[in-house]
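[Q] Does anyone have a clean structure-token version of this?
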Amino acid sequence: MLLRRAIARTFSLGFSAWLAASTVEQLRLPGVQRYRRWDVLGLVPVWTFFAPNPATGDFHVVYRDELGSGECTLWADAGDGPSPRGLRASVWNPDRRATKALFDIASGLALAANETVNRDAVQLTLPYLALLSFVAGHVGHAPGAAATQFMLLTDHGLDKPCDPVPVFVSHWHTL
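[A] Here you go.
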């Protein structure tokens, strides 16, 4: 009986210390970060519910094809976009990974396009190549299409409804 109480108190003390350390970590007080080195197993969580610079809009990828006759098709949406969100999406949402991947790739391409002066150098970045691979291989192209081009657009989300703004337009690539 005495051993059982000692074990229960030890676990209670351990979980209480863990809860206290987790709470203090979230306060971001000066000097607290120096104690992170003692957390070698990464047991104290860092919850960041809101990013320092949260996303304020969405990215859209559109493409067009150049036909063999030299004509171009109209811009078309390259993806289905986010699926309608319902109560089921809180439990089962297989599209969230693809949506997140597209957002990360588009963010990387927008950043690379802003930082790089040479437009040709952007073509060698991983986000550009990933979007090109997606548009060239996973999108239904017009019959007789000889080349394709994609454009990255951004909007300002639901807070500021407006037309999407072009962020980046690719070169033409043969199919």
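[Q] Thanks! Anything notable?
[A] Residues 85 and 164 are 21 Å apart (CA to CA).
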